[in-house]
Every structure is written in structure tokens, then in C-alpha cells.
Amino acid sequence: MIGLMMNTPLTIGQILEHAVNIHGDKHVHTILPNGKIHRYNYATLHKRVNQLSNATVSLGINQGDRIATFVSNTFQHLELYFAIPNTSTILHPLNVRLSAIQLEMIVKEAGNDIIFVDNVYADQFANLQDKIQFNHTILINNTNQDINNKDSSLEYEQFISEEDCNFSHDIQDENCAMALCYTSGTDGEPKGVLYTHRAMYLHTLAVNHVDVFGLTESDVVMPLVPMYHAMAWGIPFAAMLSGAELVLHGSKQEQIVDLICETGVTVAAGVPTVWKKHLPEMIRRKQEINTLTQIIVGGEAMPISLIRDFEKELGIEVRHAWGMTEMSPTGTLCTPRKAHEKHSYEKKLEIKAMQGRPIPGVQIRLMNGTDNILPWDGISVGELQVRSPWTVSSYYNTEPTLEHFTEDGWLRTGDLATINSEGYIQIVDRMKSVIRSGGESISSVALETYLMTHPQVKDSVVIGIPDEQWGERPLGVVVLATKNNGDITEILRQYLSNEFPKFWLPDKFVVVDELPKTGVGKTDKQKILRMIASRKHNTNGNDELNNTYD
Ligand code: AMP
User: Fold this and answer.
1) Which of helix, strand or coil describes residue 347?
2) 468: Cβ contacts below 8 Å, ≥ 6 apart
3) What pLDDT does residue 221 have?
4) Does residue 137 sit in helix, strand or coil?
């Protein structure tokens, strides 16, 4: 028997409506390219979203059209986050850091005809414009500089200014698509993930759980994760639904400490690399940033040493999350249990460095092959598989295959993990990054995380390189905090030998000035592998690297 409850659709428009009706006086703060802060409240945001929806409709769109954005974290991008799905079309944020070739492939597959472009990315966009003709280009100009237009582009403010401030959106089917994001493609070609209104709404409720992001009306929230990556981890929606103020850093990541001081940010979210970069300045200006009480980290493993620094030096709580573009993107979050209160501080840190437990609504399991479900014993290593109302069931434009989905409908994450008896997962490695040496597995993530605890190591990566005898051997690539006079390979091998078996120790460490990062700030292992392969080829086996990744 079907129950007798109303079936009002769960849509993105409802999130905005709630934010405006209940928290209309709360603000969105954006740092502009000239360093000034732009501010308006949710009531004004709502009017502009409606104007933008009307303007978009006037371009002659059809339901389900994919509309691209090439925009940084700004109030205009936030307007697009709502205005496009409200017109029954699909928001498609493009990762501005991808190469023109990758972007061309993605734009062609997605069939984007309309694009909104931030002029801070004018140069990157020019490369794309050489390859693709869009029917409509709308330029967002926050710098008042002239943009060198190749076509008859529209200017954003002119585009919306004459439009009506009311727009009635009537999306009856919550399963309609609302956004399309491509995966970062660290293991292969980027794949499209088509989010529905329902999935994004439910993800918003789940991450607002007190043991997940737990955002409240008194928070001031800054997503440092780009709005073109996995819907900025859903943080704009979560912040607005809870009535928090929202702080957007534009393209000015170097000014985030100033921004925290000026806007009183209480919660911020970003990848560990970003936090590590800003830590010294944050410590120096500790008194000025004392509003910041919590950071949400994910995308990569958060090293224990960094958690310790944030907690001990700054008194900031670290919430370590794991997820994927495919999961809207949150899957697990690490908060210690009451039972852990009795543990020593170091033991608690070890727990916090794990990726945590599934958030409400997410199911996880560990598999070895297709049939063998592994126990939650904290030791058995297998592929992490997941299921939830906000997990992809098939990639855009492709039939689901057994490479990505199981026969019984779980997503194969491609991550190797353990799960302990309390349900905490520990990511061991990406399946494709595990180094296989002499028939044994070596976890690059474990080595990298431990290397980051060495005082001289600022950044590190461990990759597998082909070896005639062993199949593969680990090679360490590090950025040092200070100039080193000794034999770095010897020093770091010695250090790692405290923790790992001898065959795990990289045979060689190469020092570089900087590690290449992907568009979302993760270390770009593919680029390093390509670099090493080409240098080997060009220098007859002399694999000395320098800072020439780009
Ligand atoms: P993306 O879709 O670009 O967000 O990448 C998802 C992948 O990032 C996951 O499958 C993991 O391999 C990795 N990842 C995300 N969060 C974490 C984390 N907290 N620790 C380790 N790896 C992570």
C-alpha cells in the first residue's frame, strides 16, 4: 500500500526559497579582483537569480540544455547555481584548470551552446574559443577591463538588468537533472556526473547533520574548494539552507587570511594542500583569525601532522571527509565517538586522520573481487563500494559498465580501503596508484602521509616506476621546507624505515621546487609520471628532475 503523504518535489529552488524567506538578511561576501569585498543579502541574490533565469530563457533554451560556466567562486557563480536549474536546464561548471584539449572534449560531449565566462579566466577561455564556437557567450566582468571579444558576447549585468525580478519555476519531477560535473580524470579521461535536484537536496540535508558539516545560522562559511569542482562539495547549498553567511574568495586564494579576518569566517573547506600552504600565515596572524573554529578537509588524505598543527597551534577543529564527484560528493566524515574520549591525544589524532564513517544515507562495503565481501576488521584491504540517493548510477552519455558499477548496483569507487569494527574507513590507495613490487603491494598514500610528518618535507608524492627485476619500484618526489645539505634519499629512507618494511622504501628521492597540482589542488600524479617518462627518454636514464613540470 502506498502511504498518504504529500509528494512535494525536492528541488534546488526550494533551498533558495527557504534561504530567502527565513534568512533573507544574511549576506554573501565576494572578494573582487581589486581586493574590495562585494556584499549583498539573500533577498537581493534571489531577485538577481530570477532576473538571470528570465534572461536565460530569453536566449531560447530548451529543457535539459547544458549551460556551461567558466567562473571562479563569486556571487555571480552562486546566482548561476540556482538560476540555471530553475529554468529546467542544467548547470555545467567547467574546470578552468583543464587543458584546452580536455575542455574541448568535455564541451563537445556535453553539447554546450551557452557559456558564462569570468574575465579573470579570459586567457584560458581564449584557448577554448579557438576550438569551439558557442552560440552565446556571457561575460562576467568584475574588473572593468576591456575583454578582447572574439564574438558578439553579452555582458552579464546588461544581460540581466532589464529583466523581471519574478520568475516562477515549476519543476515537478525532482529526478530532473540540475547540474553536470566532470570527474577530475586522475585515473583516465574525465567522466560526466549528472546530478538531480533530488540528489542534491538530500545531500544538502545529510551534510547539514550536526555530525557532518553541522552548519548553523550563526556560521560564516567559506568554501575554498572551487565552485567548478563537485559543486563546491555542496557547501553553498548547505550554508544557505542553514542560514549561514557565505564567503566567496573569487580568484584571490592568496588573500584568504585577510578574508577570514574581514568577514569573520567560522567554517572553511578545502584540500589539505591549500591548508598546508596557508598554515604559516595563519599561525602568524592567529589572533586576527580567532573566529575560525572548524575546517573541513578532503579530496586527499589529511596528514596527522597537519591536523595536529591546526588543532594545537590554532585551536581549529579538523573534520576530515572522503568523497567523490560521483557522490555529490560527500561519502564519509570523521568525527571521533564519545567512546574515544578516554584515548590519548595521539590516539585521537590517528582516528581523525582516518576518512571517517559513512554519513547518514550512505552505505559502504569492502569487496575483494566480485563476490567476496570483506570483514570490517580494520585489516582486510579491499575495494570500497558505495550506494546512496546522491551517488551516480551511470555516467553521462555512457551505459553503465562492470568496470564502474557492480551487477547489484553499487558504485566501484576505485579506492582501496580498510573498514574497522566501528565503521571508520581508512583509504589505503587508489587501485590504480598502488605500487606492485615483487608481487607485493606498497601504499603510496601511506608513504606520502608519513613523509609529510618529517619537518623538512613540505610536499611529497610517491609513484611507481617500471623496474625490470621487481615490476615496479617506488620513487619519492619531495619539496623541501629548507635547503638540505645531506643525502636526502638516505635521510628519508632512514625516516620511513621507522614505520615501513624495507621493500616499501623508495630507492631514490628527487627534490623539486614544486609539485604539479590538478585543477582542484590535488597532486597531479599522471603529470609527474609523464614527466619522468619523458625525461628518462630524453636523458638516457638520467632521471634528475628539476622544476620544469609545466
Ligand atoms: P574527485 O572526484 O576529484 O573528488 O576525487 C575523488 C577521489 O579523491 C576519491 O576516490 C579518493 O581517491 C580521493 N579522496 C577524496 N577524499 C579523500 C581523503 N579524505 N583521503 C584520501 N583520498 C581522498
Assistant:
1) helix
2) none
3) 98
4) strand
CA dihedral 56, 58, 63, 69 (to 10 degrees): -20
CB 46 within 8 A of CB 81: no
The CA-atom distances, in angstroms, between 155 and each of 130, 146, 163 are 20, 11, 14
What per-residue confidence (pLDDT) applies to 526? 78
Residue nearest to atom 23 of ligand 1 (CA): 300
Q: Determine how many CB atoms are found less than 10 A away from the CB of residue 341.
A: 8
Residues near 259 by Cβ (< 8 Å), separated by ≥ 6?
29, 31, 37, 222, 247, 249, 252, 265
Q: Helix, strand or coil for residue 31?
A: strand
User: Are the C-beta atoms of 416 and 449 separated by less than 8 Å?
Assistant: no
97, 102, 108, 113 alpha-carbon torsion, rounded to 10°: 20
- The Cα–Cα gap between 112 and 330 comes to 27
Mean pLDDT by 10 residues, the chain (550 residues): 96 98 98 94 98 97 97 98 98 90 93 96 92 95 61 86 93 97 76 97 98 97 96 98 98 92 97 91 97 96 93 97 97 97 96 97 94 95 97 95 94 96 94 81 87 90 87 92 87 92 91 84 81 62 38
Q: Which amino acid is present at 57?
A: V
Beta-bridge partners for 330: 323
- Secondary structure string (H, E, C) spanning 310-330: HHHHHCCEEEEEEECHHHCCE
| 466 prior amide bond cis, ω within 30 | no
Name the residue with the closest Cα to ligand 1, atom 9: 324
Distance CA 539, CA 308 (A): 42
pLDDT score, position 536: 59
Cell of 472: 615496479
The pLDDT, as a whole number, for residue 370 is: 82
Measured from the Cβ of residue 170, the count of other Cβ atoms closer than 10 Å reads 9
> Nearest C-alpha to atom 14 of ligand 1 is from which residue?
299
Please tell me if the CB atom of residue 303 comes closer than 6 angstroms to any atom of ligand 1: no
Q: Distances in Å between the alpha carbon of 68 and those of 113, 179, 182, 268?
A: 8, 10, 12, 26
Could you give phi then psi for residue 232, rounded to 5 degrees?
50, 40
386 in ligand 1 pocket by Cβ < 6 Å? no
What pLDDT is attached to residue 545? 47
Length of the chain, in residues: 550
In the chain, the amino acid numbered 151 is D
Q: Is 415 in the pocket of ligand 1 (CB under 6 A)?
A: yes
Q: Are 261 and 285 in contact (CB under 8 A)?
A: yes
Q: Given the CA of residue 329, which atom of ligand 1 is nearest to it? A: 4
CB 179 within 8 A of CB 231: yes
